[in-house]
User: Which sequence fits this backbone?
């Protein structure tokens, strides 16, 4: 399998979570400069707290998503990597990572996974990332959710 080699600081995942109590997980594997092993960011409704495991896995809980709405998850990869404390203080995280693979595990709907160096909000998403709807943009929050991580 080829590596994705996507380098954007932000990852946007457009998803709809399953009904309450149904497990789901998202695993994002990153290669980092001057590091032999990949780092995995795992997001799941099975996790209870933000933790770093085994020196290369970061677990982030997603137990607060609404099951009846499409949601845009915005992950700031640099901030997540810094918060994990997996790296020595002198390690330069900025610009050192690339997304190698994304694994979406069971029980959810995913519309798209995007990377970008740009910070977006729902009102300025590029056309490829916009949900199609027939109402005023000011009513967006009535129908969709937006979560920034961390």
Assistant:
């Amino acid at each position: 399998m080829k590596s994705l080699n996507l380098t954007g600081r932000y990852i946007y995942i457009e998803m709809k979570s399953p009904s309450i109590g149904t497990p789901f997980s998202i695993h994002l594997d990153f290669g980092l400069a001057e590091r032999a092993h990949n780092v995995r960011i795992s997001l799941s409704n099975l996790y209870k707290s933000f933790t770093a495991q085994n020196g290369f896995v970061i677990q982030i809980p997603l137990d607060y998503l609404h099951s009846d709405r499409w949601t845009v998850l915005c992950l700031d990869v640099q901030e997540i990597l810094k918060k994990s404390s997996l790296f020595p203080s002198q390690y330069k995280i900025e610009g050192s990572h690339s997304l190698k693979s994304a694994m979406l595990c069971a029980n959810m709907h995913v519309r798209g996974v995007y990377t970008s160096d740009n910070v977006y909000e729902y009102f300025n998403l590029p056309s490829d990332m916009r949900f199609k709807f027939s109402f005023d943009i000011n009513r967006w929050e009535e129908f969709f959710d937006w979560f920034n991580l961390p």
Helices lie at 77-84, 140-143. The beta strands are 10-16, 25-32, 39-44, 51-53, 57-61, 70-76, 97-105, 109-116, 144-149.
